[in-house]
Amino acid sequence: MKKEILVATHNQHKKEEIQQILGANFIVTSLTDYNIHDEIVEDGLTFHENARIKAEYCFKTTGKASLGDDSGLVIEALDGRPGIFSARYAGKHDFAKNMAKVLGEMEHEENRKAYFVTVMCLMDEKGVNYFEGRIYGQIRRELSGSKGFGYDPIFQPDNYDITFAEMSAEEKNSISHRRKALDQFLEFMAK
């Protein structure tokens, strides 16, 4: 029997990415599927807090097993910025401006080290569990690629010579931070 997981997002790209990673044993739904259009206020100070806020809102609103996800780009030379503010670093959900701001701040930086992190919080009738994934890489000096979303055109994973935005969805999803967190989730669900 397929297990439904409500993902605390309105982002269709994120929903599709999670469905692709979880596979046929899960039915991934989103807030939009439940006709919930409220913006969840992410006022936590950490990725863990924001993931829990989202999961708790969805679980309390629908009673369905809910997966809150908070992801971001952490750049060493910028003291961890944009971090929890990744989606609204230069403007609310304007990744063109967000990337331009990052590239501007990184213009004279030699240290290009960065990582993407995803923290997921599962809340259901059994309680609360967290799953975390990271992928390390570098910030490119210019945009490269047109696939993916968010900061994908400026992030080049370690041991690759292309950005996330140059990878197929399958290739990106096989190594991504979200994949690593969801692998932990799948392992937990198999118990």
Describe this structure in words.
The protein is α/β, with parallel strands linked by helices and 191 residues long. It has a single domain (3-189), classed as Maf protein (Alpha-Beta Complex), CATH 3.90.950.10. The chain has five helices and six strands, in the order E-H-E-H-E-H-E-E-E-H-H. The protein has helices spanning 12-22, 47-62, 95-105, 169-175, 177-189; strands at 3-7, 26-30, 66-75, 113-124, 127-139, 155-157. The chain has a six-stranded mixed β-sheet with strand order 2-1-3-4-5-6. A hairpin with a 2-residue loop joins strand 4 and strand 5 (127-139). The mean pLDDT is 94.
Shape verdict: globular
Structural class: alpha/beta
- Total domain units: 1
Give the strand content: 25-35%
Low-confidence stretches: none
Top-tier CATH class: Alpha Beta
Let me know the largest β-sheet: 6 strands, mixed
Strand order of the largest sheet: 2-1-3-4-5-6
**Separation, N- and C-terminal Cα atoms:** 16 Å
Q: Whole-number radius of gyration? A: 16 Å
CATH architecture: Alpha-Beta Complex
Multimerization state: single chain
Supply the number of helical segments: 5
Mean pLDDT: 94
User: What fraction, in percent, of the residue positions are helical?
Assistant: 25-40%
Q: Which fold name corresponds to the CATH topology? A: Maf protein
Map the helices and strands.
Layout: E1 3-7, H1 12-22, E2 26-30, H2 47-62, E3 66-75, H3 95-105, E4 113-124, E5 127-139, E6 155-157, H4 169-175, H5 177-189
Parallel strand pairs: 1-2, 1-3
Antiparallel strand pairs: 3-4, 4-5, 5-6
